[in-house]
Amino acid sequence: MNLRIAWKYSLYLLFARHRGGHGIHSPFVFDLLTNVIEKDEKQFYIFREIENVRSQLLCSKQKIKITDFGAGSSAMKGSIRKISDLVKYAAVQPKYGQLLFRLVNHFQPRIILELGTSLGFSSIYLAAANRKATVTTIEACSNIAKQAEHNFLFLKQQNITLLNQSFEEGLPTFLQKVPKLDFVFFDGNHRKQPTLNYFYLCLEKVHNDSILVFDDIHWSVEMEGAWNEIKKNEKVVVTIDLFQFGLVFFRKEMSKQNFVIKY
């Protein structure tokens, strides 16, 4: 964790609401916090299977050529990278992958989109939570896409479609084919304007019950700028800042509020 992130995290801990829902008066947010965000004691079988694959890949000595299409990585340099480093620095961590699972398991979205597949752990967490859902994940780097597809096959995830395209190419094409978006996980590029561009494109397909999840909202000044603009958008009603993730809801029956919750 670099100095800037460490400082931002200390501020987050200082101002975040405590666990347990204390001081939260919104019934929707209280229920979400107590029954989804904090309800992490239940371990589904797929958690163990995904984490077994993660453990195996952490020991891998394989290297692949990477093409970065976004802001790149502060931890990994060069175009040739170890699979083990991708697992360590780029893949969704268990705590947050399992939160994605619980969100999908609770709300049961049917049309799920992911921008940024990486090695596919987050895709699998999303897909396994609702077998009736269709998960479309977009990954521009072909070598990473191949590794992700291998993981999908190994873990028998049949409701995932991977589009090996740039977001600029794949996102508009995908949006033309679907009537709505129920759930979107933004985990790619990590620059302000591209992130906002993807958000605005997806905004045309959201509905009252849609959920957007943004990864690394405090990763950089640019990402914080994007997050702040997203919170101000007139269609956005409720946001929840979990430091790593930012959750966005559009429920018109609620008052506009922004929560910072310790996770």
Provide an overview of this structure.
The structure is a single chain. The protein is an alpha/beta fold and 263 residues long. It is 44% helix and 16% strand. The chain contains ten helices and ten strands. It has an eight-stranded mixed beta sheet, with helices on both faces. Strands 1-2 form a two-stranded antiparallel ribbon. Strand 3 (111-115), helix 6 (121-128) and strand 4 (134-138) form a beta-alpha-beta unit. Helix 3 (45-58) packs antiparallel against helix 6, helix 5 packs parallel to helix 6 and helix 9 packs parallel to helix 10 (221-232). The chain is globular. The relative contact order is 0.14. The mean pLDDT is 92.
